[in-house]
Amino acid sequence: MNMDVSLTQKKCVPCENWVPPLTKDKIDSLMKQLKLEWVVSDDLKKIKHEFKFKNFKQAMEFVNKIAEIAEAEGHHPDIYIYYNRVVIELTTHNIGGLSENDYILAAKVENLS
């Protein structure tokens, strides 16, 4: 990976199912490039972050912006909405773990908040 290019400048690329999930070292390296505190979960298979808003309307506006980015990138997060809280979970289902795409989308979502 070229460290000179920020994650927000990259585009998600389709992962073939033969591509291996990221290693712990690669995950650690990519986590350092994110601004917010994301949690690695499910035995290194997912990253997630909770965003808090003033009210439900703001939370839904945020979710709609995420949907636009996800569609443009062709990479879709799991989104959980709890009134004014939005939890984003990212994984690359096709490879059963994390890929750089998850970090690209996470960085772009961070720029919305």
Which short descriptors sum up this protein?
33% helix, 113 residues, 4-stranded antiparallel β-sheet, alpha+beta, 3 helices, 19% strand, Gyrase A, domain 2
Describe the structure.
With 113 residues, the chain is α+β, with helices and mostly antiparallel strands. The chain has a single domain, classed as 2-Layer Sandwich (Gyrase A, domain 2). 33% of the residues lie in helices and 19% in strands. The protein contains three helices and four strands; from the N terminus they run H-E-E-H-E-E-H. It has a four-stranded antiparallel beta sheet, covered by helices on one side. The chain starts with 23 loop residues before the first helix and ends with a helix.
Please outline what is shown here.
With 113 residues, this protein is an alpha+beta fold. It is 33% helix and 19% strand. The chain has a single domain, classed as Gyrase A, domain 2.
Q: Which architecture name does CATH use? A: 2-Layer Sandwich
Largest sheet: 4 strands, antiparallel
Roughly what percent helix? 25-40%
Structural class: alpha+beta
> Order of SSEs, N→C?
HEEHEEH
- Poorly predicted regions: none
Number of domains: 1
CATH class designation? Alpha Beta
CATH superfamily: Transcriptional coactivator/pterin dehydratase
Note the beta-strand portion: 15-25%
User: In the CATH scheme, what's the topology name?
Assistant: Gyrase A, domain 2
Helical stretch count?
3
Give the tally of β-strands. 4
Q: How do the strands of the widest beta sheet line up side by side?
A: 1-2-4-3
* Rg from Cα: 14 Å
Mean pLDDT over all positions: 93
